[in-house]
Amino acid sequence: MKIMLVRDRNVLNTNWLAYFANLLHQRGHEVVIACDTYGKLGVSAPGYELQKGIRIANVNGKTSSPLLNLWHKIRCKTLPSWGLFNRLIKKEQPDVIICYFPVDLYNVTRFQHHNIPIVQMIHGYPPLILDKVLKKNPLMRAWCRKNFAQVSAYQVLMNSYKNDIDPFFAPRKIVRIANPVRQYVENEIVDLQNEKKRIIYVARVEKLIKRPHLLVEAFAQIAPEFPDWKVEIWGLRKYPAYEKEITTFIARHKLENQVALMGYNKDVEALYRSADIHAFPSACEGFSLAIADAMAMGLPHIGFKDAHSVNEIIVDGHNGFLAEDVSDFAAKLKILMQDKALRIKFGKNAREDMKAYAPEILMQQWDDLFKELTSPQK
């Protein structure tokens, strides 16, 4: 089949999209990534480069003509792209269109009348992704509703999310297909026998959802007992005021030698191998690849009981711990830090649990969905 993946901007900065496109290509599908961006498409992380044969169709990309480039640059920043995507769809004639975000759905449905099945991905907790539409004015809501009415199927990442899509979005079909998780051989996984005394958190430094300050606050409660342990927070840094809150807290508690904001690192696998524990204080996730990949490499985890998705992937007392609050987070972190055997046990269980998300299993679910959406209606 020909599959069109639609992602408006930052195409290659999204490692998962490249990984997914490669997996579709490996299954024999023709893959076209449709986007609307002037300038750089982004940079793939090592191991996430697009495979030969996958095409990128950029409706506002650079050309060899300076005048045309000027027009594309203006058009990309000021005008909607619905007509351009309509033209691209007519040219490519895909069997299925997969939209990464709602904005991508608008690009392939507004003022368009094709009958190509559309899958709307929900990369997160559905209300966080979709319910922004419900806050729009009545005219905009009505317009958006027409777009969502053209969705053939919504893909959610957790079974529990099937009931979290508001009826406004006209969900004719909701299917749970989790993110495919890379599987690692023995010499690629974390060596927990070799104690590094390092706790990491891999996520962007952001206050409302990712909440790294909660990890810092929890560690501060037990840090005096573990002077040789360190906490490293690895992820994109773009909120200076929030970072200042964290660094001020670190300084006030004299943790400068134990806690640090490390910034972004493309070699995430190396980060996991450098750690003993992956602490994950996020408020909610869709299906966190940071957790899943770290589990597939054998790292034990700790998160919060009320964090959507986190509280389903982390099974309390099996592959990690789930905490009630910051004090409980600190207490359970302490247990893991003190008990290497428990960390090894949780890590083995985590790695075993991730086998259910092996790419061949998840991509078969996608193939089944494609066949269902493209089969003649009885």
Highlighted features:
378 residues, Rossmann fold, seven-stranded parallel sheet
Structure report:
It is built from 14 helices and 13 strands. The longest helix has 16 residues, at 359-374. The protein is of the alpha/beta class and 378 residues long. Strand 9, helix 8 (240-252) and strand 10 (259-263) form a beta-alpha-beta unit. The protein has helices at 15-26, 66-78, 82-92, 102-109, 126-130, 138-148, 212-222, 240-252, 268-273, 289-296, 310-313, 326-338, 340-353, 359-374; strands at 2-6, 30-35, 55-58, 96-99, 118-121, 153-156, 174-176, 198-202, 230-234, 259-263, 277-279, 301-304, 320-323. It folds into 2 domains: 2-178 and 359-374, Glycogen Phosphorylase B (Rossmann fold, 3-Layer(aba) Sandwich); 186-357, Glycogen Phosphorylase B (Rossmann fold, 3-Layer(aba) Sandwich). Helices cover 38% and strands 15% of the residues.
Per DSSP E runs of 2 or more residues, the count of β-strands stands at 13
User: Which class of secondary structure composition applies to the elements?
Assistant: alpha/beta
How helical, in percent, are the residues?
Answer: 25-40%
Quote the distance from N terminus to C terminus.
21 Å
The number of helices is 14
The CATH architecture name of the largest domain reads 3-Layer(aba) Sandwich
- Looking at the structure, the CATH topology of the largest domain is Rossmann fold
Molecular shape:
globular
Write down the CATH class of the largest domain: Alpha Beta
Secondary-structure element string: EHEEHHEHEHHEEEHEHEHEHEHEHHH
Question: What is the CA-atom radius of gyration, in angstroms?
Answer: 22 Å
Domain count, please report it: 2
Question: Which strand-content bin applies to the residues?
Answer: 5-15%
Major β-sheet profile: 7 strands, parallel
Write out the CATH superfamily name of the largest domain.
Answer: Glycogen Phosphorylase B
Strand order of the largest sheet: 3-2-1-4-5-6-7
Unreliable parts: none
Mean of residue pLDDT?
92
